[in-house]
Amino acid sequence: MVSQKENKTTSVQQLIANSRNHKTKKIVEKAMPALLFSAALISILTTFGIVFTLIFETFEFFKRVSITDFLFGTEWLPFSGNEPLFGILPLIAGTLKVTLIAVVVAVPFGIASAIYLSEYASEKVRRIVKPILEILAGVPTIVYGFFALTFVTPLLQQIIPELKLFNALSPGIVVGIMILPMITSLSEDAMSSVPNSMREGALALGATKFEVAVKVVLPAALSGIIASVVLAISRAIGETMIVSLAGGATPKFDLNVTDSIQTMTAYIVQVATGDAGYGTTIYYSIYSVGFTLFIFTLVMNLLAHYISKRFREVY
């Protein structure tokens, strides 16, 4: 009788506990959407705050400097005494030089690595090689910068004697190495998502493994591959530390890659580290350069989004 009574008492306690747990779960269920919405709202407001700050400060700059001189000027000399020049084209040229060299390095090696990992490597090899490649993405960019300045540049000078200590070539190559894991990883994911039935069908028709990779898998995963390349280009355009350390600080509007350059990000670093006083035209120029950089990366991200949607294959 006592045991039955204890069991009944325990059951009542469990019911009370379950009831409390149920109430707690209901409160959590009701609170979570509000908390998640708050997190999303903070992110959106932060984005608007950044864009608003850029636009506001850039507008202040264009009160002092003609927008036509800024967009079409071929000389960027903000520290030149009484007549500073703010033509953005030399900084854009420096940025594009580094980006193009990085693309030439990263795209062939990245896609080739992705084809190997997706079509030729065994599962064991893929599990080892892919994380090792992705470790490159975790290396601090300042380490890449010192690598470019102290290893790649002296190495290239053995081949190209006229190469200056600060140049566009070595940071471009190292930025290419930096974005290589992004292209490889995203492209490999896109290629691995292609159904095996397509590979087996091509093999059954007599295609070789290489033909399957190049003529079947690669076109089928094209949207993901192109999107990965565009995102990597966007990353290369915004790279800061490598170009600041190894590119130099000489903005020039030409095609020479062996001489010192200055990119948009490198200029922002130069001014932001104390080369100009607050409220001066030079100070506001970093916002105009930052806004230009923002437009570049925004266009690249929108392009990646469009390509991903436009050429997406549905299996």
Describe this structure in words.
By secondary structure, the protein is mainly alpha-helical. It is 76% helix and 1% strand. The chain is built from twelve helices and two strands. Strands 1-2 form a two-stranded antiparallel ribbon. A hairpin with a 7-residue loop joins strand 1 (76-77) and strand 2. Helix 1 (2-62) packs across helix 12 (281-310) and helix 3 runs parallel beside helix 6. It starts with a helix and ends in a 5-residue tail after the last helix.
Could you provide a short overview of the structure?
The protein is mainly α and 315 residues long. The chain has helices at 2-62, 67-72, 89-120, 123-135, 141-159, 169-192, 196-204, 209-220, 222-237, 241-246, 264-275, 281-310; strands at residues 76-77, 85-86. Helix 6 (169-192) runs antiparallel to helix 9 (222-237), helix 7 (196-204) packs across helix 8 (209-220) and helix 11 packs antiparallel against helix 12 (281-310).
Layout of secondary structure:
Elements: H1 2-62, H2 67-72, E1 76-77, E2 85-86, H3 89-120, H4 123-135, H5 141-159, H6 169-192, H7 196-204, H8 209-220, H9 222-237, H10 241-246, H11 264-275, H12 281-310
Antiparallel strand pairs: 1-2
Helix pairs in contact: 1-12, 3-6, 3-9, 4-6, 5-6, 6-9, 7-8, 9-12, 11-12
Total DSSP E strands: 2
Protein structure class:
mainly alpha
Shape: globular
Low-pLDDT segments, ≥5 res? none
Please work out how many helical segments DSSP would assign: 12
**What gyration radius follows from the Cα positions, in whole Å?**
27 Å
